[in-house]
Design a protein that fits this description.
With about 425 residues, the chain is an alpha+beta fold. The protein is built from nine helices and 16 strands.
Length: about 425
């Protein structure tokens, strides 16, 4: 929403949302867009409707609810609200709509967790859902010692995955709900297609987090492991160069890039406080850049359009960096705040690269190091390794982690 990572206070979940700097407000006030939101907003702060929205419906925390004479399913309601915006909007103005499906969130407190629509129940009925290779008691015991049975990720594992039968039932319902979202997206695209605007509309499909499906003996999200921080990202852009259509890209794209990408498509520059980049440079031929390092990447921090690119890491001879004018990032700083208390959901931070990942748990001052090329399941913590290569890697990544954390927590106008 704000295009920057620093929205937490210390290690606690306390958000700061300047109302005139949200993507909704900027598009509405500066680019004359009709703006809409349908679904889960997910912010624990009040939003000024007139400044941000022409259309706003916030639905969160339920799968079935009686409204008037109709029993609604949440995805059905999200779809209906999105359709209401699309069909009633001012068509003389460009539009921005965020359809924030509540699915596939579970319903907290309901032992069934995932409640698909009745017409979806035959889907996956005869399939066997694979069990993740790290969904083992061994993997759980390898978690840091402060991960106890009262950790919320472990609690939700017991709700969903503590027996093979429960695992199959939960995952099938989870996939049914995901398929319902897919159907809903198709309905919305058909509306745009029928009104002739589909091929002039940027469409981004993504999520706000990954999910543990019993990996490491956990459920849900919150932590720096691959299952939790990797998310889908699908982009349909009328400006996309033909050679990129239908291809995949393994560059590090982040949630902070969404705001810059959308603003750029609307003809607006990111605010100096925004930390992300326009992802369209990865798929537009005349703008295409790549992530590999060059000798020029070693130069000092420099300024571009009111924001600074950060100097590369001291290790790797320029290989590791947060991006330059001609190169996409090859590393990033991750953070998630503590929720409620450190035993429930502890704060976590990380430096993520494609070869190694460094974890830091600030509530416990605990470090971890993983060689994710050779250990993609993050099972073998190298923090106490006596291998000289691992010792050097730990020192280098610890240093770079502290650099990026300081910058992310500063008031500097930087690109991360």
């Amino acid at each position: 929403m704000l295009g920057r990572g620093r929205t937490v206070n210390g290690t606690q979940m306390m958000f700061e949302v300047p109302q005139n700097e949200t993507i909704y407000s900027l598009l509405k006030q500066k680019a004359n867009y009709t703006t809409g939101h349908a679904g889960k907003l997910g912010l624990w702060v009040p939003m000024k409707d007139k400044l941000n929205f022409d259309f706003f419906v916030d639905e969160d925390g339920w799968h079935y609810r009686q409204m008037g004479n109709k029993m609604w399913h949440i995805t059905e309601k999200n779809t209906a609200d999105a359709l209401r915006f699309l069909t009633t909007r001012d068509k003389s103005r460009p539009f921005f709509l965020n359809v924030a499906y509540f699915a596939t969130h579970a319903v907290d407190g309901d032992q069934r967790q995932y409640l698909p629509q009745n017409q979806s129940m035959s889907m996956y009925e005869n399939d066997t859902i694979p069990i993740p290779v790290t969904a083992t008691e061994e993997a759980w015991k390898k978690m840091p010692e402060f991960f106890g049975e009262n950790n919320e990720g472990r609690t939700r594992w017991r709700w969903r995955f503590d027996t093979p039968e429960k695992h199959q039932s939960m995952m099938k319902n989870y996939y049914r709900m995901a398929s319902e979202v897919d159907t809903s997206v198709g309905i919305l695209l058909d509306v745009l297609r029928n009104e002739g605007t589909l091929n002039n509309t940027l469409i981004i499909f993504t999520t706000d987090n990954g999910n543990f499906h019993a990996e490491h003996g956990l459920a849900d999200k919150w932590y720096p492991h691959q299952e939790s921080i990797r998310v889908p990202l699908i982009i349909k852009d009328p400006r996309m160069s033909p050679e990129f259509i239908g291809t995949t890209n393994d560059e590090f794209t982040l949630n902070i890039d969404l705001t810059s990408t959308i603003l750029s498509a609307a003809g607006l520059e990111p605010l100096p406080s925004m930390m992300g980049r326009d992802m369209s440079v990865l798929y537009r031929k005349n703008m295409a850049i790549h992530g590999s390092a060059t000798a020029q990447a070693r130069r000092a921090t420099h300024s571009v359009k009111g924001r600074q690119f950060v100097a590369p890491a001291s290790d790797g001879d320029g290989k590791y960096h947060s991006g330059t004018e001609t190169k996409w990032r090859t590393e990033f700083f991750y953070e998630h705040p503590m929720h409620t208390n450190k035993d429930y959901i502890p704060a976590s931070e990380a430096l993520v690269r494609k070869d190694y990942k460094y974890f830091y748990w600030p509530n416990f001052k605990h470090e971890q190091l993983f060689d994710i090329r050779n250990d993609p399941g993050e099972m073998n913590d190298l923090i106490n390794s006596t291998n000289p290569e691992h010792i050097t890697k730990l020192q280098d990544m610890r240093k770079r982690f502290l650099e990026l954390k300081m910058l992310a927590n500063s008031d500097m106008n930087i690109v991360l």
